[in-house]
Specification:
The complex is a heterodimer of chains A (112) and B (114). Chain A has no helices and nine strands. With 112 residues, chain A is mainly β. In chain A, strands 1, 3, 4, 7, 8 and 9 form a six-stranded mixed sheet that branches. Chain A has a three-stranded antiparallel sheet with strand order 2-6-5, with no helix packed on it. The radius of gyration of chain A is 13 Å and the shape is globular. The relative contact order of chain A is 0.33. Chain B is globular, with a radius of gyration of 13 Å. In chain B, a hairpin with a 6-residue loop joins strand 5 and strand 6. Chain B has no helices and ten strands. Chain B has a six-stranded mixed sheet with strand order 2-10-9-4-5-6, with no helix packed on it. The relative contact order of chain B is 0.32. The chains are: A mainly beta (112), B mainly beta (114). Chains A and B meet through strand 3, strand 7 and strand 8 of A and strand 5 of B.
Chain lengths: 112, 114
């Protein structure tokens, strides 16, 4: 399975919003509502920010929101804060005949 | 609290094998899948496969079919990932992760060098 496509970088000033796209196919993003988003700071393990397209785990600020349209999922970070500067990865379940997952290529978010 | 604790860093020569362990605690071990994900230096996340502790079943990414084996021990709540025929391109941090995945281990650096 091929990696999901994300823009390499995105940026915004403190307080602004940034939206990251994640494009797949009808076999992954478009076929299932099992899209997740992860935040990763340098040298750290990824942290789950959004699961099942738009659900937030306990403890994740409501500044983080997710959505999906067709084969593309999106993560929006509102009210950008300095600590939001990190790499972000999407992932999706890939059904068909097997229990498979795929990650996105990753997006570096810079807070200007 | 949920914890996944992985084994320490490993150094291997090309052609060798490596086994990384992931010990789970703080939840019922058999109720959640365990994924393995790797990240080469400066690169993105790559899903390798998943292990079901309840039934011992596995599903591997096509890229790793034939070179990876994931197993588990319910008596110690530990999952293992073995990668064979290592090359320099297998140098990476290897993570185990539970379920969605939601909780992640701390990562294990595997270095392949002659």
């Amino acid at each position: 399975q091929s990696a999901l496509t994300q823009p390499p970088s995105a940026s915004g000033s403190p307080g602004q919003s940034v939206t990251i796209s994640c494009t797949g196919t009808s076999s992954d993003i478009g076929g299932y509502n099992y899209v997740s988003w992860y935040q990763q700071h340098p040298g750290k393990a990824p942290k789950l920010m959004i699961y099942e397209v738009s659900k937030r785990p306990s403890g994740v600020p409501d500044r983080f929101s997710g959505s999906k349209s067709g084969n593309t999922a999106s993560l929006t970070v509102s009210g950008l804060q300095a600590e939001d500067e990190a790499d972000y990865y999407c992932s999706s379940y890939v059904g068909a005949n097997n229990f498979l997952y795929v990650f996105g290529t990753g997006t570096k978010v810079t807070v200007l | 609290q949920v914890q996944l604790v992985q084994s320490g860093a490993e150094v291997r020569k090309p052609g060798a094998s490596v086994r990384v362990s992931c010990k789970a605690s703080g939840y019922t071990f058999t109720e959640y899948y365990i994924h393995w994900v790797r990240q080469a230096p400066g690169q993105g996340l790559e899903w390798m496969g998943v292990f079901s502790p309840s039934g011992g079943t596995t599903s591997y990414a096509q890229k790793f079919q034939g070179s990876v084996t994931m197993t588990g021990d319910t008596s110690t709540s530990t999952v293992y990932m073995e990668l064979r025929s290592l090359t320099s391109e297998d140098t990476a941090v290897y993570y185990c992760a539970r379920g969605k995945p939601d909780y992640w281990g701390q990562g294990t650096l595997v270095t392949v060098s002659s």
